[in-house]
Design brief:
single chain, alpha+beta, 2 domains, two-stranded antiparallel ribbon, 9 helices, 7 strands, 43% helix, globular, disordered C terminus
Length: 229
């Protein structure tokens, strides 16, 4: 399974991305212009040595870039595995994911035909306005051990799993539909400090009344102001 075979399998197999072919097509159609615009903005920053249109072509077409990114985000698939799937170099996969993730994050989460949530503040406001409950929890993704001599290398060691990891805070509604996923932090970051750094405690204190379900890792989150951390 390489190249076109990987493309067809990822689109057809719901378990790989968690998205239907229709949603994937809509996602690619929306993110495509954003990616192209960012790509064009980067070109003038580099000295041109060839005529416009000359030089090497993309080995990984744009349609495959969001697919590789979605699989990586959902399953934490290593770039080496995606390299084998799409038949390109590892650096190509790494660069593609790095380029596609920002437009995906900027797109936000559509909760209704006319409502799209892009920030944590918008999520809290939306849940509070409707009187709905939310569920918050942290999730860890195992990562490659940072190189020797790298500053703060030990911060990536998770106290829970005793492995090198990064952590994100996830906020969903009562039905489990994900509304917000934070940027990753080193695995040693505990749940409460991460929530305070993201401003969740302040948003809940100053925003509309709402119920947030969480495990014991968030107990006492409102005991101190966020600027104390």
């Amino acid at each position: 399974m390489v190249g076109a075979g990987a493309h067809e399998l990822i689109v057809a197999e719901y378990r790989l991305t968690g998205l239907s072919p229709t949603v994937i097509a809509e996602l690619i159609a929306e993110v495509g212009p954003l990616w192209h615009e960012q790509h064009q903005e980067r070109l003038p920053a580099r000295p041109r040595r060839r005529a416009v249109g000359a030089g090497a072509k993309h080995k990984l077409v744009f349609v495959d870039r969001p697919l590789a990114t979605l699989v990586s985000l959902r399953h934490g698939t290593t770039h080496d595995v995606l390299t084998c799937w799409f038949g390109v170099d590892r650096s190509t996969i790494t660069r593609a994911i790095g380029e596609v993730r920002p437009p995906l994050a900027q797109r936000g989460c559509t909760v209704a035909p006319d409502i799209r949530l892009r920030t944590l503040a918008e999520v809290v406001e939306c849940l509070g306005a409707d009187g709905r409950s939310g569920i918050v929890d942290g999730t860890e993704i195992r990562v490659r051990r940072p190189a020797a001599g790298l500053r703060d290398r030990d911060k990536f060691v998770s106290g829970k799993t005793k492995q090198n990891a990064v952590k994100s805070m996830i906020l969903t509604d009562a039905e489990g539909r994900m509304l917000f996923c934070s940027p990753v932090r080193p695995g040693s970051c505990a749940d409460i400090p991460q929530a305070r750094q993201l401003g969740l405690a302040q948003l809940l204190a100053e925003g509309p009344f709402m119920e947030i379900l969480a495990d014991a890792g968030y107990q006492g989150m409102g005991a101190r102001p966020a600027d104390a951390w």
